[in-house]
Design a protein that fits this description.
By secondary structure, chain A is mostly beta strands. Chain A contains 1 helix and 9 strands; from the N terminus they run H-E-E-E-E-E-E-E-E-E. The radius of gyration of chain A is 23 Å and the shape is elongated. In chain B, strands 1-2-8-7 form a 4-stranded antiparallel beta sheet, with no helix packed on it. The radius of gyration of chain B is 23 Å and the shape is flat. Classes of the chains: A mainly beta, B alpha+beta. Chains A and B meet through strand 1, strand 2, strand 3 and strand 6 of A and helix 1, strand 1, strand 2 and strand 5 of B. Strand 6 of chain A pairs antiparallel with strand 1 of chain B, so a sheet runs across the interface.
Chain lengths: ~130, ~150
C-alpha cells in the first residue's frame, strides 16, 4: 500500500513556478513645461534592456527589473532583486509616438512630448 | 466525486498562494522606496548590502543619480563612512508636479565585521550602484591550518 496519505496529488502548474520578484514603486519627480512632461524615476541597478514602458488606454506602466549578482556569504542585506513598477495616467494631450526615454546612473528620464494641438498658441489678431 | 476533488484543489491552491505571500513578507519588507517610513530613520540612506567572499568584503550601495564626484568614502580600520550629495537635477523652466526623489546630502557609517586594508579598496559606480571591494587586512584573512 502506498505510504502517501495525501488526498490529492497535484502538480504545480507553470504559472505557480515562476519566481516573483518583490515589487517596489520607484520614487519619481514629475516636471512639465509647455512642450513636454518630464519624469525622472530612481531605478538603481536597472540596465537599459530590463526596462519596459507601456502606454495603453491612457495608462502608462513603467517596469524595470534589477538583478544583483552577488557571491559570498551575506552579512546584511537591505535591498534585493526588485521589480520597479509604477503606473501613471497619461493625459490625452501627449503625443505617444514621440515618447522617448534614457537611463543614466540608475535614473530613468522619460520625455512625454505634448501634441501640437495641445501646445499653447498665441493668436494674432488682424486688423479688419 | 471528481468535482469534489477539484474543489479541494482550489482550496489548496488558495492556501499555496497564501503561503507564497507569507514567504515573501520579509523580502517585501523594503518594498516602498520612500525613506519616510517610521521604521527607517534618516540614517538609512543609502541602503547597502554587505557580503563576505572570504578574502574580501563587498559593499553595494544604492546611489541613483549621484555623480562620482559627489560621493565620499572614508575607511579606517573597520569603520566605513559613505557620504555625499544628491545633486538636484531639476530642469530649468519647468513647473514641478511631484518631487519624491531625495535631493539632500547624506551620510552613513558602518562598523565592518573585519578590519580592511584601506589602500587596496576598489570602488566603482555603475547604473546607480556603488560597488566596493574591501580586502580584509592580513590578520583578518582566513588561514589554512595544516594538521600534523
Amino acid at each position: 500500500m502506498s505510504e502517501n496519505t495525501e488526498l490529492v496529488t497535484r502538480n504545480e502548474g507553470p504559472g505557480e513556478l515562476v519566481h516573483r520578484l518583490p515589487v517596489a514603486a520607484p520614487a519619481v519627480d514629475i516636471y512639465e513645461n509647455e512642450h513636454e512632461i518630464l519624469l525622472h524615476a530612481d531605478m538603481p541597478g536597472v540596465v537599459k534592456d530590463d526596462i519596459a514602458i507601456n502606454i495603453d488606454n491612457g495608462k502608462m506602466t513603467l517596469s524595470g527589473f534589477r538583478r544583483l549578482q552577488s557571491t559570498g556569504a551575506s552579512a546584511w542585506r537591505e535591498f534585493t532583486d526588485t521589480e520597479y513598477r509604477r503606473t501613471f495616467s497619461v493625459p490625452q494631450s501627449i503625443d505617444i509616438a514621440k515618447v522617448h526615454a534614457e537611463i543614466k546612473d540608475g535614473v530613468l528620464r522619460l520625455h512625454l512630448p505634448k501634441s501640437d494641438a495641445a501646445k499653447p498658441r498665441q493668436i494674432e489678431i488682424t486688423a479688419g | 466525486m471528481m468535482t469534489r476533488w477539484s474543489d479541494l484543489n482550489q482550496v489548496l491552491g488558495a492556501m499555496d498562494l497564501f503561503r507564497t505571500r507569507m514567504n515573501n513578507v520579509f523580502n517585501e519588507f523594503d518594498r516602498s522606496h520612500q525613506s519616510d517610513l517610521p521604521w527607517t530613520g534618516n540614517g538609512s540612506f543609502p541602503r547597502t548590502n554587505l557580503t563576505d567572499t572570504g578574502d574580501n568584503l563587498e559593499v553595494i550601495a544604492e546611489v541613483p543619480g549621484v555623480a562620482r564626484e559627489d560621493l565620499n568614502v572614508k575607511i579606517q580600520g573597520n569603520y566605513l563612512e559613505i557620504s555625499g550629495q544628491c545633486a538636484s537635477d531639476a530642469p530649468e523652466g519647468y513647473t514641478v508636479h511631484r518631487t519624491e526623489r531625495k535631493k539632500t546630502s547624506f551620510s552613513r557609517s558602518f562598523t565592518l565585521p573585519y578590519d580592511v586594508d584601506a589602500d587596496k579598496v576598489q570602488a566603482n559606480i555603475k547604473d546607480g550602484l556603488l560597488k566596493m571591494i574591501l580586502p580584509k587586512s592580513e590578520k583578518a584573512k582566513p588561514r589554512q591550518i595544516s594538521i600534523n
